[in-house]
Amino acid sequence: MSLSLSTISREQHLEYIRSLPSASHMQVPAWGDVKAEWRSESLGWHDPSGRLVGAGLVLYRQLPRVKRYLAYLPEGPVIDWYATDLESWLRPMLDHLKKQGAFSVKMGPPVVIRRWDARAIKAGIQDPGVRRLRDIEATALEPRAFEVADRLRRMGWQQGEDGGAGFGDVQPRYVFQIPLKGRSLEEIQKDFNQLWRRNIKKAEKSGVEVVRGGYDDLPVWQQLYEVTAERDRFRPRPLMYFQRMWKTLNAETAAVGEPDRMRLYLARHEGEIIAATTMLIVGGHVWYSYGASANHKREVRPSNAVQWQMIKDAHAMGAHVYDLRGIGDALVETDHLFGLIQFKVGTGGEAAEYLGEWDFPLNKLLHKALDIYMSRR
């Protein structure tokens, strides 16, 4: 099929995303406004009749003192990844980005390779011979994903290194998801492990109340988030980042009469906010985006309570998946991310491995220089 590619308007881009069952929240036009330190562009693929058949949000980051850019499509573009003529989709994109001054292109195909259900992961954790997810036989495999990887390699794309949970600008290769479609809340909670169900009941008996917050509650969120950052030793994003995210994402959906794209949930105990989370929504896909909690009152289990409320709300809105986002792939207690996967496995969902991020060097010298710079950070 002969495809053409061009810059499209935000309105065209959003209309196309809205026509799909779901897409990554990093591929909606407003995400370019969230990432204010990048320049953004909406790309559209058209078939011979002129119909829009694909879209992608590109973020451009300029090299210091040089008018050359890294072009990044996080969890995108939104195209037919299983097309046998995949090059006819990606070649026009590379040509366009090169004309825009890109020296390298990074993208994250939203293609799942493997899935492991909670039962398989739990068995793997108990097996001393298992150290990583890939040591366990997958519950489900997607053969077409391997074909996509082969096509990308033949085109000259290079697979990025596996970064585990991949927090930061590089997106996670491994995520944890709870399937919701066609399941009742009773069925979903039945798959929770005993500890999760006990903690939810404990939060209820202790009087933990989970409520929806608004824009004016973001400073309260930020206080808890910075406490969490200090406890877990990561660099927190500033308040203005979450304020910008709230305004831009929710303005986008408000303009077309849809519910908020971003939500804030607060867990309150005896009048005090002790945990908070953010949720993102695109079509039938709901993400738990960020989480925070106080150092005290952890015994009343506010984090379990707020997650359960978010799952119930996602189910009520007809979502087909609740996405707990990144996990590490290590299944040994000595790994610093082991507690994360242990917490999420308790929900009875499944781990999913995506194809990972891929790079195409348009200028090999500058691409290599960027690799060296990033490895030294």
Automatic annotation (TrEMBL):
GO terms for molecular function: aminoacyltransferase activity. Transmembrane segments: none annotated. GO terms for biological process: cell wall organization; peptidoglycan biosynthetic process; regulation of cell shape. Keywords: Acyltransferase, Cell shape, Cell wall biogenesis/degradation, Peptidoglycan synthesis, Transferase. Belongs to the FemABX family. PANTHER family: LIPID II:GLYCINE GLYCYLTRANSFERASE. This is Lipid II:glycine glycyltransferase (Peptidoglycan interpeptide bridge formation enzyme). It comes from Streptomyces aidingensis.
